[in-house]
Write a structure and sequence with these properties.
Mean pLDDT: 97
Structural class: alpha/beta
Shape: elongated
Radius of gyration: 31 Å
Number of helices: 6
Oligomer: single chain
Strand order of the largest sheet: 8-5-7-6-10-9
Number of strands: 27
Low-confidence stretches: none
Bound molecules: adenosine monophosphate, magnesium ion
Largest sheet: 6 strands, mixed
């Protein structure tokens, strides 16, 4: 064992160090079918108005309101996609169906429920007002209106709008290509029976899910042993086709912890110790060609919490998200929280609604090996460093992972 030479960096400052060194990825044009969750690289401005023509909102009869209603001749039909040809004569009506174009000369649509119909005539209420039951051009979307702002992710409604205004391909930021690797001689593949002293590699699957949820395109590198040469070989090969390297394990100060020296030799290590609990040995390096490396601690909770605090915001920055952080809510602490003397602590909690406010309940032992503290958690409560801790009933910041049902 040797003492770490890395300075202990404040958690918030460390998060800033990561973000300021994180590049935004280039832009590509992607078809709508592949755009879900992607982030627009420029404002999407409506090149047309919607609707593009006066469109009936109901089934009924298009008339001229000045005709005064009563019995009118039915001279034709305007169905969706099959407009009435020409101008509606005075004293006449055209049958119109939902989505049909309001014929030229007509200024209102009488709902079918309000008329009496014959074979080629219709009786409409007298003095029926103009402007009823149809959408005017531009009512739904004006020409030149911003449909989606740059930095905003594309969801179902946004993609529907892009299609509606006739844009099959959108300019979005690339997704980061991430190589994921677990390090540790004690690890075996899931499904294999662990031998004496061995454990199953669970971080790979937890982090794969977390990476994908954050929008990354992930390559699994598998297991690396605690030996410098094979580790170096795996990492250098993986860096070829990837922008981000994420490792778990091998970042604390024991003799088998090889990730920091490896990253030192490949690039520049900016963080090697953080005033964070769990996650003190979190390591961050920049590598040639704008690549990033995140050395996450091996303990399952530490790896996921440092992922939340450092990696997820960075991946979102790369994809151009305007909002890189999860929402933070002020919640009432439903338990007494002990604090760490010199580290910001993220305690895992469930949230319950009580008397109109959200109350945080601890998920039990906060040991960094106990993944059950994170399973089903709704939030990470931020407990500032200090001797005092926080009394039950205090109001605290919580990073929201999921809202309670
Ligand atoms: P390390 O950061 O390598 O010192 O590992 C700290 C602890 O996390 C040790 O108890 C490891 O066995 C455990 N650990 C490391 N990697 C993994 C992994 N991929 N899955 C589950 N546990 C791990
Ligand atoms: Mg290890």
């Amino acid at each position: 064992m040797r003492a770490s030479t890395y300075p202990l960096v404040d958690a918030a400052e460390a998060a800033e160090i990561v973000l300021t060194r994180t590049p935004v990825l280039p832009v590509e044009e992607v078809h709508l079918a592949g755009c879900l969750g992607r982030v627009l690289a420029e404002d999407l401005v409506a090149p047309v108005q919607l609707p593009g023509f006066p469109a009936s909102a109901v089934d009924g009869y298009a008339i001229r309101s000045q005709d005064g209603g009563g019995r009118l001749r039915v001279v034709g039909e305007s169905a969706a996609g099959r407009p009435f040809a020409g101008e509606l004569p005075r004293g006449a009506a055209a049958r119109i169906l939902t989505g049909g174009v309001l014929p030229a000369g007509a200024d209102t649509v009488v709902m079918v429920e309000d008329v009496e119909q014959g074979s080629d005539w219709v009786v409409v209420p007298s003095r029926y007002p103009a402007g009823r039951n149809f959408h005017r051009p531009g009512d739904d979307l004006r020409l030149g209106e911003v449909v989606v702002r740059r930095g905003q992710p594309l969801g179902a409604a946004e993609l529907g709008l892009a299609a509606a205004v006739g844009l099959p391909r959108l300019r979005v930021h690339r997704r980061p290509l991430v190589a994921l690797m677990s390090t540790g001689d004690e690890l075996v593949e899931v499904g294999q029976r662990p031998g004496p002293g061995q454990i199953t590699d669970s971080n790979r699957w937890a982090l794969l899910a977390a990476l994908r949820e954050a929008g990354a395109d992930v390559t699994l590198l598998g297991l690396a042993p605690d030996r410098p040469e094979p580790l170096r070989a795996l990492v250098t090969e993986a860096l070829e086709g990837h922008e981000v390297l994420v490792t778990s394990g091998g970042v604390s100060v024991g003799t088998h912890d090889l990730v920091k020296p490896l990253l030192e030799s490949l690039g520049e290590v900016h963080l090697g110790r953080v005033r964070l609990r769990p996650g003190k040995p979190f390591t961050f390096a920049t590598l040639p060609q704008g690549r990033l490396a995140f050395g996450l601690p091996g303990f399952p909770v530490s790896s996921l919490v440092t992922f939340e605090v450092f990696v997820r915001p960075a991946l979102r920055r790369m994809q151009g998200f305007a909002a890189v952080h999860r929402p933070t809510l002020r919640v009432r602490l439903g338990y007494e929280a002990r604090s760490s003397a010199d580290r910001t602590e993220y305690q895992r909690v469930t949230l319950v609604r009580e008397a109109g406010e959200l109350v945080a309940r601890t998920t039990g032992s906060q040991s960094s090996s106990r993944l059950m503290s994170l399973a089903g958690a709704h939030a990470l409560v931020r407990v500032p460093p200090g001797d005092g801790g926080l009394a039950a009933g205090a109001v605290v910041d919580a990073i929201v992972l999921a809202l309670p049902d």
